[in-house]
Amino acid sequence: MTLYKVYISVKSQQVYAFPEESQWEFEVTATRNEIKVFERLFYQLKSVQSRNFLRAHEPMSVKPYHVDGENDQYDRRLKKVYAWIHEFTSDDSKRFIEQLPYFQRRMEVQL
Q1: Into how many domains does the chain fold?
Q2: Is the alpha carbon torsion for 31, 32, 38, 40 positive or negative?
Q3: Which residue among 47, 59, 74, 106 has its CA within the 20 to 30 Å range from the CA of 68?
Q4: Strands annotated E in 18-76
Q5: Residues 43, 46, 52: CA angle, nearest 5 degrees
Q6: Domain residue limits at 30
């Protein structure tokens, strides 16, 4: 199983193969299949953003953020992105992600 180093930008929702391509926030080491998960999650985030953008411009469709299911979908996917980064990044980046208010460590089952 070959591991690849890629550079993740949550801000621009991109995966870069080379650090010089653009600005990035996290360096990740993962397999190709694991990297594809990042790409899929970013695609899903962009899709939800597009739907939210179009819906926000329709009259009478504005809902408060905290009661809008589309925003909940976006938030869930963003949490998944950070959880996935947490799995494959450096210890410094892991500590940073663990300090985010919405990060929750998985509960380990004790036998």
Answers
A1: 1
A2: negative
A3: 106
A4: 26-30
A5: 145
A6: 4-98
Q: Does 104 score more than 90 pLDDT? A: no
Amino acid letter, 30: A
- Residue 109 domain-assigned (yes or no): no
- Least Cα distance to 26 among 83, 72, 71 occurs for 83
Residue 103 lies in a domain: no
What tokens were used for 68?
């809008």
Residue 106 is assigned to a structural domain of this protein: no
User: In terms of residues, how long is the chain?
Assistant: 111
Distances (CA, A) of 46 to 88, 94, 109: 22, 25, 34
**Phi, psi of 58, rounded to the nearest 5 degrees:** -90, 135
Specify the pLDDT at position 57. 64
Confidence of residue 27 (pLDDT cuts 50, 70, 90): very high
* pLDDT tens per residue, range 37-91: 999 999 999 988 887 776 666 666 565 555 666 778 888 899 999 999 999 999 9
In a domain, 61, yes or no: yes
